[in-house]
Amino acid sequence: MIVAVVPIKSFTSAKSRLGDRLDADQRACLAQVTTDRVLRAFAECEAIDERIAVVEDEAAGRVAALRKFDVMVRPDLWGQSAVVEAGFEEGRRRGADTVLTVSADVPLTRPKDILQLLKPKGPVVVMVSDREGLGTNALRLSPPVQLRLHFGPDSLCQFKREAELMGVPVKVIDNPRLRLDVDTGDDIDALDASGPEGRQVLIDAGRIRADQVKDDIWMPGARF
């Protein structure tokens, strides 16, 4: 059984590193759009058996529920590693033989990218880095071993070391869509330059009225 986990931070507090480019309302709108695109990719991928969203608040949970995710509301957890581990542990409890995650800020994710993550035969740890080749935007564990999670700066190398210590083979996939997360102003520029799909993410974010993000209501607005 394959279980997907998506960690979702509160939209209103997400993307603080974009403060030099976007105001708080714009950041909240962009966070919702990127999250929903990742959720939709998993929802449309028939290879996934169960989907779990580990969320910080009820507003994020409502967005995940619309994409048919099981929702775990865990405001007590701090950091992506702890949030993903909570989802992985629930997957293990359900009997998963594979668990995987894609960060919620990787908006170009498509079902075929998820299938690429699932292609290498296990036992294996599969990863996709960020654009700098340092962080980790996607992670798959087959079987779902108790790998110590290290999301953040230099996490790719740390994951490799952990897997080697456990004797599990590692496969790093170079997928341009999965490598493009949205954390900084440079990432926004890269998203805009990536083509029509990337530009559509920004257009969609501009169509949400920020005071209604919590209700998942899409309204016309200005593009930023």
List the helices and strands and how they pair.
Elements: E1 2-8, H1 24-43, E2 50-55, H2 58-66, E3 70-73, H3 80-93, E4 98-102, H4 111-118, E5 124-129, E6 136-142, H5 155-166, E7 170-172, H6 176-179, H7 185-193, H8 196-206
Helix pairs in contact: 1-8, 7-8
Walk me through what this model shows.
It contains eight helices and seven strands. The protein is α/β, with parallel strands linked by helices and 224 residues long. It has one domain (2-215): Spore Coat Polysaccharide Biosynthesis Protein SpsA, Chain A (Alpha-Beta Complex), CATH 3.90.550. A seven-stranded mixed β-sheet has the order 3-2-1-4-6-5-7, sandwiched between helices. Helix 7 packs across helix 8 (196-206). It is globular, with a radius of gyration of 16 Å. It starts with a strand and ends in an 18-residue tail after the last helix.
Q: How is this structure best summarized?
A:
By secondary structure, this protein is of the alpha/beta class. Helices cover 39% and strands 17% of the residues. It has helices at residues 24-43, 58-66, 80-93, 111-118, 155-166, 176-179, 185-193, 196-206; strands at residues 2-8, 50-55, 70-73, 98-102, 124-129, 136-142, 170-172.
Structural class: alpha/beta
Could you state the CATH homologous superfamily?
A: Spore Coat Polysaccharide Biosynthesis Protein SpsA, Chain A
Which consecutive residue ranges, at least 5 long each, have pLDDT under 50? 211-224
Number of helices: 8
Number of domains: 1
CATH topology: Spore Coat Polysaccharide Biosynthesis Protein SpsA, Chain A
Helix content: 25-40%
SSE run: EHEHEHEHEEHEHHH
Number of DSSP E strands: 7
For the record, the CATH class is: Alpha Beta
- Termini separation comes to 41 Å
Categorize the overall geometry. Answer: globular
Spatial strand sequence of the major β-sheet? 3-2-1-4-6-5-7
The chain-level mean pLDDT equals: 91
In what range is the share of β-strand residues? 15-25%
Radius of gyration: 16 Å
CATH architecture: Alpha-Beta Complex
**Main pleated-sheet profile:** 7 strands, mixed
